[in-house]
Amino acid sequence: MLDAQTSPAAPPVIRREDYRPPDWLVPSVALDFKLSAERTRVHARFQVVRNGDHDRPLRLDGDELEPVAVRTDGKARVDWTMDDGALVIALEGDSHWVETEVELNPAANTKLMGLYASSGLLCTQCEAEGFRRITFFPDRPDVLSRYHVRMEADRSAYPVLLSNGDLVGTGELDSGSHWAEWHDPFPKPAYLFALVAGDLHANRDSFVTMSGRKVDLGIWVTERDLPKTAHAMAALKASMRWDEEVYGREYDLGIFNIVAVDDFNFGAMENKGLNIFNSRYILADPDTATDLDYDGILGVVAHEYFHNWSGDRVTCRDWFQLSLKEGFTVFRDQCFSADQGSAAVRRIEDVRMLRASQFQEDAGPLAHPVRPESYIEISNFYTATVYNKGAEVIRVLHTLLGPEKFRAGSDLYFERHDGQAVTCEDFVLAMEDASGIDLSQFRLWYSQAGTPHVKFALSHDPAGCEAVLRLEQSVPDTPGQMNKLPMTIPLRLALFDPETGDCEVERLEILTEQTTEIRFPGLAKRPVISINRGFSAPIIVEGDRSATDLAFLSANDDDPFGRYEAMQQLMLDTLVGTLSNHKVDHAAVVDAVRKTMTNNALDAAFIAEAVLLPSEAFVGDQMLVVDPDAIKTERDSLRHALGSELEALWRAAYSAHAAEPFEYSPQAKGSRRLRNISLGYLAASAAADFAGLAFRQFEAADNMTDRLAALGTLANSDADERVAALDIFYHRYRDNPLVIDKWFTTQALSTRMDTIQAVHELRIHPDFTLHNPNRVRALAGAFSVNQQQFNLGDGSGYRFLADIILELDPINPQTAAKLLPPLGRWRRFDGKRQALMIAELERIVRQSGLSKDVFEQATKSLSRD
Ligand code: 0A1
Ligand code: ZN
C-alpha cells in the first residue's frame, strides 16, 4: 500500500527538528504593482543582510514564477539558477540590494493563493506560502520586513487600492490610471502582506483606543452589500474594546480595514491592518443570515482582530508553531463570544464542535500533535487539532494558573516577544516565568497526539461514611506515536446528595499520575458525581453512571455544562444500549426531556441544547464499528418517541416562542432555536399538521433562521410542500450566492433516501461551480457529513466525493484536500464499506499530477500504521 514516506514520487517531508534560522534577513522591501486582471507586473526591491557566518547563496522562494529581470546592487544578473521554483543568486558580501521583476496572471490563478481575481476584485492570500506566488522572496515567518507598497491600476475598474499599514500618497496618471502608496511601519513576515484593488465601498466608522487615539475603520464591500455590514462593524468595535479590557492590548495603526471577497479558501485572514474575509463572515441581514451566521461573524471578526497581537505583533518562528497564534487566538475569540451572550450555551457549542471534528481527527489516520513534527504541505495543518484542541490547551493553562497569573503570563509574553517570531515553548516559558508554576508536564499537550481517556469509578462505604473516586488516565496510540506519558489534566468535580440535590463537594483536581485515588470522608449517602464540569479538559471520560444518576444530574447539576452532558450521556446510553442489545427503552430519556422542558428556571437557549439528540456521527463515535443505517433507525425511533410522547410540550413551546420581529439578542436567539427544535420534534412525531406548520413558518418568517429551519424540516420529508418550498427559496434568493449555498447544503444534508440522486443533480446544476470554495463545501462538504447517505452500502457516496476531489485538485488543491478526511475514516466501518473507501482513496492516489495537498491526505489516510 502506498505510504506518504515511501512512495516513489513522494514530495519531501519537512521536519520540525530540521529548523535552521534564515540565511539572509530582509529588513525592508519596496513592492511596485502595475495591476491588471490578466497581466500584473511586480517589481520588488529589497535589502538582504547575511545572517550568521556562512557562505550560502541567497535563495528566494518562488512558486509558478519566472524572473523577467534580476538585479543586485543595481546591476543586471544572468548567473542565477532556479531550484524547485526558487531563485538562487550567489552573493559575495554581507549586505546587498536585490531587485526582481515578474509577471502574473491573477485571472488564471484558480488556487486562490497569491494574487487572484474574485468577482472583479484583485486580492491576495499569502498565508502560509502564497507570497512566493507574487514575488521571489524568503517566504518564511521568521523573516520580518518593513513593507512599502506602490499600486497602480485603471481607475474605473479599480477605484480603490488598499494595502497594509498607512496610506502615504495617492495620485492620478495619464490614460485613466491612478496610484496609491502604503507604508506599514511594523516589521512583518511575508504571509501577512495583503493588497486589494477594486470597485469597493466602505462602511466607515471610528474607534478611540484606551490611550485616546482615533482609528479609522472601514469594511469594504460592493455597493449593493453595504447594508449588510452593520453587524460586522459592531463586532469589530466590541472586539477592539474587549482586547483592551481583558488583555490590555491596544490597536496600533491609524487605520483598520476589512475587505469581503466571494472566493476564499478559508474563513478570513489577519493581514496587518487589512484583514481579508470570506464574505460569509461579513455580510448579514435578518433576511439572508441565520443566527449561526451572525454568531460566526462575531467570532471570526474578533478572531482576526485579536490576531493583531497574537499573530502579527508576535508571530510564529516556523509553521510547526502554528498553534502558538491559532490556539491562543481561538481561545481569545471563544472567551469574547462567551462574554457577549450565554457563556453556558457557547461552551456547549464549542465542545460539540470539538467532539465532531477534533476528536474524530485525533482518533484517525490524520492525528497529529497540537505542535506537529512533520508535514508535506502546511496547508493541511490548519486543522481542528491546531485550532480547537490548541484553544483547549490554552484553556487548560488558564485553569491551572487562574485568571490573574494567566494574564500576567500573557502580558509577559507580549512584552518579551513584541516584534519577534517565536515558538510555543516561548509562550509556555512566559507563562511559567510569570506564574512561578512548573509547566514541565503540561508541555505534553503540545507533543502528544490523541485524546486522553479518563476512566472513573466511584465507590461508597456507608459504614465508614466515605466515598472513594478512582481515576485512571491513558492516551491512545496515534500514527507514529506509541506509549504515551500521563498528562496534566485539570478535572472539575462535584458530588451531590441524591435526595436533597445539594452539592456536597466541589473541587478542581489536577491529575498528573496514571492512576489517582481521592477519598471524600463524611458522606453518609452514596453521592452522585458530576465530572469534567465545564469541560475542564479536552478528554473522553468513561464511567458507568446509572440512568438514574444521569437523570438526576440532568435535572439538578448546578453546572449547566454538566447538566447538558448528563442528558447527552443518557441519550447516548439509550441509543448505544438499544443498538447493542436490541432492547428499546426510551422512558428515561423521555422523562428527563419532559423535566427539562417544564423547568421554568431554565432559559430557552439552554433547553434547546439540552433536548437535542446527539448527532448520528457522535453516536457512531461511541461504537466499535459504525453502523450508519442502524444508528439512523434507532435515533429516528427515539426522536419519534420524544416527538409523540411529548407532543403537547413541543406544541406549547412552538407557540410560546412564536416569532417576534427579528432581533439578534441571546434571548431572541434562544427562542428561535427552541421553537425550531420543537418543530423538528413535531415532524418526528409524524403529527398530521407538521408540514402545514413548517410551510406556514417558511412563508411567514421575517428572518433566515426560521425560514431555513422550516425548509430543512420539509427537505427531510415526503410532504407535498417540500418541492414547492425548495423552489420558492431558490427563486427568492437566486442572486445571493451565500443563500444559494444554504440551498445546496439543505439538500445535501437531507435524510431522504434519494439524497445521492439529489447531490448528483446538484453537481450539474448551473449554479454549481468548482471555482468557488463556499459552493464546493456547501455541496460536497455538507454531503460528506450526512452519515447515513454518505456511507450508502454501495459506495456511491464515496465515489461522488472522490470524483469531486479529483476534479477539483488541479483547480484548487487546498480546498480539494480539505474534503478528503471523511474517506480516511474507513477503519471505523464494516469490511465492505472499508473496501469501498480504500478503493476510492487508491483511485485518488493513482491520479497522475496529484497535488502535494491531496497526496499527503490520501496517502496518510490509506496508511495502516
Ligand atoms: N490565519 C487565518 C487562517 C487562514 C489560513 C490560510 C489561509 O489561506 C488560504 C487563509 C486563512 C485564520 O486563522 O483566520
Ligand atoms: Zn487564526
Primary descriptors:
nine-stranded mixed sheet, binds O-methyl-L-tyrosine, 21% strand, binds zinc ion, 865 residues, alpha+beta
Structure description:
This protein has about 850 residues and is of the alpha+beta class. The chain is built from 27 helices and 32 strands. It starts with 13 loop residues before the first strand and ends with a helix. Mean pLDDT is about 95; it is low at about 1-5. Bound molecules: O-methyl-L-tyrosine (0A1) and zinc ion (ZN). O-methyl-L-tyrosine binds near residues 304 and 382. O-methyl-L-tyrosine (0A1) binds near residues 266, 270 and 303.
List unreliable stretches of 5+ residues. Answer: 1-6
Number of helices: 27
Average pLDDT metric: 97
Bound molecules: O-methyl-L-tyrosine, zinc ion
Strand content: 15-25%
Helix content: 25-40%
Overall radius of gyration: 28 Å
How far do the termini sit from each other?
Answer: 11 Å
What is the count of β-strands?
Answer: 32
Structural class comes to: alpha+beta
Biggest sheet statistics: 9 strands, mixed
Instruction: Sum up the overall morphology in one term.
Output: globular
